Amino acid sequence: MEKKKILIIEDDPKIRRYLELELIHEGYNVVLCEDGFIGLETFFKDSYSLVLLDLMMPKISGEEVCKKIREVSNIPILILTAKDETFSKINLLDIGADDYITKPFVIGELLARMRVIFRNKKSYTTKNIIQCGDIILNLTEKEVQIKDEKISLTKTEFKLLEYLMENKNIVVTRDKILENVWGYNYDGQEKIVDIYIKALRKKIDLSDKYIKTVRGFGYMLKREAE
Questions:
Q1: Least crowded by CB within 10 Å, which of 54, 69, 123, 126?
Q2: Cα four-point dihedral sign 129, 126, 147, 81
Q3: Is 5-120 a domain of CATH 3.40.50.2300?
Q4: pTM of the predicted model, to two decimals?
Q5: pLDDT by residue (tens digit) across 162-189?
Q6: Cβ distance 81 to 100 under 8 Å?
Q7: Where are the alpha helices (DSSP H) in the chain?
């Protein structure tokens, strides 16, 4: 049987290490993230069985992380919360959490709560999502969001962005773009790619410049910071 993979988003290094050791000992695979921003990026890159999520974190709070995950997935989420934090169980359930446990906790109780969640939530679905930086492409809903703002694209612009995001950080030629976006070659009309790239840039290159021109080769989708 394949091991369940647990995503731990927790800013306290001691708690992260404690959870890592205990969960590995129990037969789980574990992925660690030190803040909400990294946690969200990591979540979108792979599949997990459950998220252990700290509530109070720098950069992005656990509350916001929980809401953003719930927008695309019903994966089990178990919140780790300190005694003096004001969120009630009702608040946590409202933002999409399945359960919560108060720090300091006994590992046996945490493991028991995880088992209950797995029994009660035997399957979950994740929408078909591709992400690059602040760009989130929802293939199921055919929607594009940048920093929580929906971006309106034509059908061809969407297919072009999808192809570029699937090949993130890879230079793709105009011929390859024509083949994969239009489905056939426009003989001698590669300029149509440039026209659509220009239109797409106007819509998605808001604060970051994502689409790079690689002279003599083609184009590449890449975050400025990467």
A1: 123
A2: negative
A3: yes
A4: 0.60
A5: 989 888 888 998 888 888 887 755 555 6
A6: yes
A7: 13-25, 36-45, 62-72, 89-94, 107-120, 155-166, 174-177, 191-204
